[in-house]
Design a protein that fits this description.
27% of the residues lie in helices and 15% in strands. The protein is an alpha+beta fold. Its cofactor is Mg(2+); Mn(2+). Belongs to the DNA repair enzymes AP/ExoA family.
């Protein structure tokens, strides 16, 4: 059995990097895969990010927006199984819990054993950042943890981190008192010893969080084994995380903050024997998967920063995965996936409906179908024309291909076969024919020629619920392209469709024309040509402005390059950066060596050059 922990630094980015979630998971060839820093909000849990064939997943997302931490952390545990139901596999958990305090809604909102001395507000604040998923695999309980990262000057977050690990330790002690075996994996954001940090100073191990971590280990009287250090006690430069903005991976200048801890007795029947424990009897190996590092030998140039100041994009997380392999782990009784599994999330499986609501919807649908069939077979319509006679056409002349899903004749199909009649008002008499609101539009060269007593199809009134066909979009575009013709035909009536009268004239009213002797088509054409000339003039002006702006920007860049100092160690142009940490120097610009960060003993690494950019004093 193989367990992997990996800070993905954004699950969506890693899925995109590997092509799919399934390919990302299969690349580890592991039975249990624990991700940290997924950076997903609950509403972003879509099937392509949480569901993969052959895996069950369990997520915890940030529930708070304090200090912009919405979608900031988040953890997920994926379990590779053959079946999610009635399975004997150890990888499929028998129970799962979001958070470790028990107060979250999905966990039953009951305070976990051993945490009764803490206020509920404290417990909620710890679990609301989506930093833990617990899965019970029968033989052991697995904690997937993403520990808080804090700055040395952020007092509030330091107190939060102390509270986080204090409550977490109490939960571990409660499970150990019940005789449970525990695995703790994840990014704890703690380097326990100087050997685990590239630039550890004399006071490095005096940090309060590092002291707490070491106090939990067996060598300090605690209950847990640091599995990696137990297997590789003297290995140096075994790092799992590197600064993402300094190119430190090139020289392996990082820290080990991703851990795998275990505690408890072995699975043998005589587990009370001396030296028998979970580590010595069942943990076969534990190591860092360095092939997932962003920097690869021969694939990245020596400098992270080029001369023009643009950084080289490294694909992947700034962490490396850690794995452990177990042996002699027997199967457990049959069980099914817990209710916390992602397959049961509403955004994945949909909202459950009651039986009554389904029957009511079906009854209403059947009744609506019967009403439509009765009305469509019996109803006829009379459309007033601009004369004294009326013409009729029944609905039951529609074919099945003309019927929309609602049971009505599709107006779009009628338009494709011939003209359609649109009525927008009542025509009073033949004297007002020129201003009649009735319009006849043609979908082809054919026209509707209604005869006395002939029935015509009435075009159903369009509404927001009428379904459109693909053909309708092309018809609409063709109508827009013929605006010049529609401006003339909309105010006149085809003499074939309407009887002539003494008051009717085929001439266009002079008030509607720019001049009595000018063709309206020619007027519109000249206007279009003038518009094109204006557009061409605007385009040339825009191009000229862009060229001026480009030249000015190049001039500024040249001035900046000339003002960039050279580092003392390599006599190479430095790179400019800006202080982002709140304080008196926030926003101030400075220059540093452009090479990747590394040990001071390596002449190829960053020489440590630093210089503030000159700035004029501002009046307060």
């Amino acid at each position: 059995m193989k367990i992997v922990t990996y800070n993905v630094n954004g699950l969506r980015q890693r899925v995109s990097q590997f092509g799919s979630l399934h390919k990302l998971l299969d690349s580890f060839d592991a039975d249990i895969i624990c991700f940290q820093e997924t950076k997903l909000r609950r509403q972003e849990l879509k099937s392509d990010l949480v569901m993969a064939d052959g895996y069950e997943s369990f997520f915890s997302c940030t529930r708070t927006s304090d200090k912009g931490r919405t979608g900031y952390s988040g953890v997920a545990t994926f379990c590779r199984v053959h079946s999610a139901f009635s399975s004997n596999e150890v990888a499929l958990p028998v129970a799962a819990e979001e958070g470790f305090t028990g107060v979250l809604e999905g966990s039953g909102s009951v305070i976990a054993p051993g945490l009764e001395d803490f206020a509920k507000d404290e417990l909620s604040s710890v679990d609301n950042e989506g930093r833990c998923v617990i899965t019970d695999h029968g033989h052991f309980v697995l904690f997937n943890i993403y520990g808080p990262r804090v700055d040395s000057e952020d007092v509030d977050r330091i107190q939060f981190k102390l509270l986080f690990f204090k409550i977490l330790q109490k939960r571990w002690e409660s499970l150990l008192s019940q005789g449970r075996r525990i695995f703790v994996v994840g990014d704890l954001n703690i380097s326990p010893s100087a050997i685990d940090r590239c630039d550890a100073g004399p006071d490095f191990e005096n940090n309060q969080f590092r002291k707490w971590f070491r106090s939990m280990l067996v060598e300090s009287g605690g209950s847990f084994f640091d599995v990696f250090r137990a297997k590789h006690p003297e290995r140096r430069e075994a790092y799992t995380c590197w600064p993402s903005h300094t190119g430190a991976e090139q020289f392996n200048y990082g820290s080990r903050i991703d851990h795998m801890l275990c505690t408890g007795s072995c699975l043998h029947q005589k587990h009370d024997l001396e030296s028998h424990n979970l580590l010595t009897c069942h943990v076969k190996d534990c190591d860092i998967l360095i092939e997932y590092k962003r920097w690869k030998d021969g694939n990245t140039p020596r400098y992270r920063w080029k001369g023009d100041g643009l950084s080289i994009k490294l694909e992947g997380s700034d962490h490396a995965p850690v794995y452990l392999s177990l042996e002699e782990v027997p199967e457990i009784p049959q069980h099914s996936t817990p209710s916390l599994a992602s397959r049961y999330l509403p955004m994945i499986c949909g909202l459950q409906q009651t039986l009554v609501s389904m029957l009511m919807k079906r009854k209403v649908g059947e009744q609506g179908t019967r009403d439509v069939s009765v009305s469509s077979s019996a109803q006829t319509t009379t459309v007033k024309s601009c004369g004294s006679k009326s013409v009729e056409r029944s609905f039951n002349s529609c074919s099945e291909s003309d019927m929309s899903p609602g049971g009505f004749c599709s107006p779009l199909n009628q338009e494709s076969e011939g003209g359609s009649l649109k009525t927008q008002g009542d025509c009073r008499d033949l004297a007002n024919e020129a201003t009649c609101n009735t319009k006849i539009t043609s979908g082809s060269s054919k026209h509707i020629n209604p005869l006395p007593g002939e029935r015509i199809n009435k075009k159903p009134r369009k509404s927001q619920f009428s379904q459109l066909s693909l053909r309708s979009f092309f018809q609409r575009s063709s109508k827009l392209s013929n605006d010049v013709h529609s401006s003339v035909t909309d105010t006149s009536i085809d003499e074939v469709d309407v009887p002539k009268s003494p008051h009717h004239s085929n001439k266009t009213p002079e008030a509607d024309c720019p001049s009595s002797g000018t063709n309206p088509h020619e007027v519109n054409t000249s206007e279009c040509s003038q518009d094109r000339d204006l557009q061409d003039g605007n385009c040339s002006l825009d191009k000229e402005k862009n060229n001026v702006a480009l030249l000015e920007w190049r001039r500024i860049q040249q001035l900046m390059e000339n003002s960039i100092p050279l580092c003392k160690g390599h006599q190479e142009p430095c790179v400019a950066r800006v202080v982002k940490k709140p304080g008196p120097t926030f926003g101030r610009r400075f220059y540093v060596c452009a090479r990747a960060e590394g040990p001071a003993s390596n002449p190829e690494a960053n020489c440590g050059y630093f210089k503030w950019a000159s700035s004029k004093s501002r009046q307060k």
